[in-house]
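note to self — DONT lose this again. spent like an hour looking for the file last time. sequence + predicted structure for the chain T wanted, 122 res
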Amino acid sequence: VQLQASGGGLVQAGGSLRLSCAASGRTFRSYAMGWFRQAPGKEREFVAAINHGGTITDYADSVKGRFTISRDNAKNTVYLQMNSLKPEDTAVYYCAGDSRFGLVAPGDYDYWGQGTLVTVSS
């Protein structure tokens, strides 16, 4: 599966952004999806994940209550709604896919999209 992330940009602290990740192919529902981020000089870290049917989600503690992951299997797209953004959320955000749900390590995911940059100004 090929993944294409979009929706990044510059936003003030407290603002919102919605990231999208469009997948190619007809097997999108075969993959659990995740979002990761990587800030300058830091390792890539888990943000959120959603299972194949969109019924189970998982979040990093740092984004719980502020970010929401969702998916539309009819549109082959996964979303990350980000609210109450903080300067520390500034990073390149990546979407990833794998046949297994519950993965939080970047190395466990088989498929990756290109990143989209989110910059939160204070």
